[in-house]
Amino acid sequence: MTPSAGPQTHLFADMLARVRDAAASVLGEGTDLSRIVVEPPRDASHGDMATNAAMVLAKEAGRNPRDLATAIAEKLRTDTQIDKVDIAGPGFINLTLKPEVWPEALRAVLAQGKAYGKGTVGAGHKVNVEYVSANPTGPLHVGHGRGAVFGDALASLLAAAGYDVTREYYINDAGAQVDVLARSAFLRYREALGEDIGEIPEGLYPGDYLKECGHELVNDYEDSLKQMPESEWMPIVRRRATDMMMAEIRNDLARLRIVPDVFFSERSLIEGEEPDPFAAEPPPARAADIVVETIDSLRAQGHVYEGRLPPPKSGNLEDWEDREQTLFRSTDFGDDVDRPLLKSDGSYTYFATDIAYHKSKVDRGFADMIDVWGADHGGYVKRMQAAVKAVSGGKAVLDVKLVQLVRLLRNGEPVKMSKRAGDYITLREVVDEVGKDAVRFDMLYRKNDAVLDFDLAKVIEQSRENPVFYVQYGHARGRSIFRTVAADMPQLDTGAAALKAADLTRLTDAGELSIIRKLALYPRMIEAAAQAHEPHRVAFYLYELASEFHAQWTRGGKESPHLRFIIQDDPQTTLARLALVQGIVTVLASGLDLLGVEAPDEMR
RNA sequence: GCGCCCGUAGCUCAGCUGGAUAGAGCAUCAGACUUCGAAUCUGAGGGUCGGGAGUUCGAAUCUCUCCGGGCGCGCCA
Q1: Which of A174, A258, A397, A406 could form a disulfide with A266 if both were Cys (CB 3.0 to 4.6 A apart)?
Q2: Which value, in Å, is the radius of gyration of the alpha carbons in chain A?
């Protein structure tokens, strides 16, 4: 196996396999090797890679770590790709690879191009990533944007790791809130007919965004809706209003380069309406009420019963009424209390339809599903995971990623917002103001469970220190080298084939070798970030790679001109260094693409 | 009261599923542009990883317990 054997493997995975073989040959087959890790050492002077194999296996083997390390090291010393094996500290095995490994690692980047870093850990696994899933009752705000960006980048990351990914948006179009939306739209419809509607009553949506909907209803129905009782116009107006809102939301998402594969309507679970109003192909016929079906099936398995719940602990008992109701036995699956499926008026709780929805994911073949929710839904996680267990017979796993709230600031001052008053900053406004790339990168440059301060002024004014421009500048700078060399050394062939054939052993500078090591780490980073469901790792990796590149660039200043990437009278060295730059540019572009951020050729 | 999340440099945050001497950016101070792009780089100072106990070869990371902050706790979604 060589490092360039293809996307199935990479330097670290390859070495991990070798270390496991060595460990197995010392301790015998059947040893648990799963905890062994091969990673870059903290300190480069320790070598190229380090493994904890001896320390992890010592206890089970009943040997002391240093002795075991000695035995494993002995095996590794025979490996053709390993130059030096040292034992250090409590039993680390430090590996120094043969010098020729690194040129090959860089050549693998050049050979694979955009495919470099793509892995296969997810091969054969379908994953459903559900994100945003906002009520279609108003424009998206910045908090929705964070969930959307996070979910989208996570989906891209999983796809890069080989998973078969579906990006899904669950339209909450069945609750009381969309009825409120419809009444609000109906008011705008009357307004469009010339009626003086005065102040928007308390409890309805006051935003101007429904005025257009009112006009459209007049165009299509004239004043006929006005003659109908609410029960008749409600379905018409509701459908029109939610469709319009969803069109707006899709537009907002598209501006962030977010395009879900599936829009799944909650109402479709209940009424058998089209589940995806935007589907290219008509949906398959459905049973009239999938929620009933789901509950019945759970009841048949003994997971649903009629019973009573203790009063809620929130202190607010005003509306509390002790009564027998239909409950899901979620405590059998790890939840704290059993959860109601029906409201007192007989309609489904949100949870009930959500169970049916997640069952549909199971039915569609997803054993892995990820939901991206706002942090205020944290109390909902256990019951949903319980439901997924019940509905899949324990075969499916739901991971819920909670996205913390976004504090919108301008020059450090909180931006005042009130949804009730209808005066809040929309996601679209923010994207228009600071740009898609800054929004996306900023939101991905943090863990999902950390509160995010998003300062509109700083994102623009401090653009010089903004990480997104730092990384993009790295890419543009790399591309500019190729423009320069084309002008200064027109006789030099810098095509892909020439770069691949370059004499990469000329890359001997410590900075150059460090960059190659960083590039070699990329596939491992993708794999780990995908398995941990942590797209922010990609952003940090890119920042570090750009940083090493910027540093290497500046080293070739007037103190050490021999370290420049372009050496006019040395075409061979120039070519080798251009190959390195190409590797950097390739990985930067690839990583930025995962984050949905552009990789510009220039940014003057 | 219970559950979940968070607490790391003055500020904003990483810390690669338990590894070696805890790292970046901003801010502060001192430096590098007749340069392949200075939207860049080099260096310095700055830490009881909220406190305490435990688990083990080894803890910012796992367990317990306090402290402090956030979210949630039928018929909102």
Answers
A1: A174
A2: 29
SS3 A554: helix
Angle, in degrees to the nearest 10, between helices A65-76 and A11-27: 120
Q: Which of residues 305-324 of A touch strand B (CB under 7 A)?
A: 308-309, 311-314, 316, 319-323
CB A589 within 8 A of CB A582: no
Positive or negative torsion for Cα A348, A353, A359, A363: positive
Strands A262-265 and A164-171: parallel
Strand B contacted by A518 CB (< 7 A): no
Q: How far is the CA of A43 from the C1' of B31 (A)?
A: 27
- In this structure, chain A runs to a length of 604
The nt closest to A511 (CA vs C1′) is B41
Which residues 136-165 of A interface with strand B at a CB distance below 7 A? none
CA distances from A557 to A66, A444, A510, A564, A566 (A): 46, 33, 16, 7, 12
A313 CA – B1 C1', rounded, Å: 8
Question: What is the rounded CA–CA span in Å between residue A58 and residue A76?
Answer: 17
User: In the numeric block, which tokens belong to residue A328?
Assistant: 């899901």
- Do the Cβ atoms of A543 and A467 come closer than 8 Å? yes
Q: Is A320 exposed, middle or buried (0-12, 13-18, 19+ CB in 10 A)?
A: exposed
**Distance (Å, whole) CA A541 – CA A157:** 13
Look up residue A98 and give its two tokens. 């043969």
Q: Give the CB-side neighbour count of residue A314, counting CA atoms within 13 A.
A: 7
Tell me the H-state helices in A256-412: 266-271, 290-300, 350-363, 381-392
- What nucleotide is nearest A577 when CA is compared to C1'? B36
pLDDT digits (tens, 9 = 90+) for A433-467: 889 999 999 999 999 988 888 888 877 765 667 89
Two tokens at A73? Answer: 């090291």
| pLDDT (tens digit per residue) in A316-346 | 677 788 888 999 999 999 898 999 999 988 8
Residue–nucleotide distance: A177 CA to B1 C1' (Å): 32
Q: Which of A353, A399, A398, A400 is nearest to A376 (CA)?
A: A400
Q: Which residues contact A561 (CB under 8 A, 6 or more apart)?
A: none
Q: What ipTM was reported for this prediction? A: 0.96
pLDDT at A411 over 80: no
Who contacts A89 (Cβ-Cβ below 8 Å, separation ≥6)? none
Burial per residue of A219-253, b for 16 or more beta-carbon CB atoms within 10 angstroms, e otherwise? eebeeebeeeeeeebbebbbbbbbebbbebbbebb
Instruction: Give me the CA A10–C1' B60 separation in Å, rounded.
Output: 30
As a rounded value in angstroms, the CA-to-C1' distance for A364 and B64 is 43
